[in-house]
Design brief:
The protein is mostly helical. Helices cover 42% and strands 8% of the residues. It contains 5 helices and 4 strands; from the N terminus they run αβααβαββα. It has a two-stranded parallel ribbon with strand order 1-2. The radius of gyration is 12 Å and the shape is globular. The chain binds a DNA duplex through α2 and α3.
Length: 103
DNA sequence: CGGTTGACCAAGT
DNA sequence: GACTTGGCCAACC
């Protein structure tokens, strides 16, 4: 039984440990696709889970260059949350060299 | 089933 | 350095 692309994104996102981040691109590539947009769209369309009791840290997902892109609550909130997790945000960007989680 | 869309990305202007 | 264009692919209408 194959899950939808979106659900697979959640699965991968769930694997990201606290204090680490990943990129939309990486996730899409892991799914053997280039549907970067589909990953982000999945988050927006669905309740992100983590707010509803699920464990889908959508805030741990950043852009391809560690740059914060989009977030339903606002990028500002996203930065705050990441900082709480131990990820330093510099100029609205994350240091992927230190915080990017290798899937 | 065809067309629009989207929390992207890379390159061009 | 900021904005525009094209491309990618799955989900949604």
């Amino acid at each position: 039984m194959k899950k939808s692309f979106n659900e697979q994104c959640y699965e991968i996102l769930r694997k990201v440990p606290k204090g680490k981040v990943t990129t939309y691109k990486a996730i899409a590539e892991k799914l053997n696709s280039k549907a970067y947009r589909q990953v982000g769209r999945a988050m927006n369309k669905n309740p992100c889970g983590f707010l509803s009791g699920g464990n889908v840290p959508c805030h741990r997902v950043v852009g391809s260059n560690g740059k914060l892109v989009g977030f339903a609550h606002g990028l500002k909130k996203k930065e705050e949350m990441l900082k709480e997790e131990g990820v330093s945000i510099i100029n609205g960007k994350v240091d992927l060299g230190k915080y990017k989680f290798e899937l």
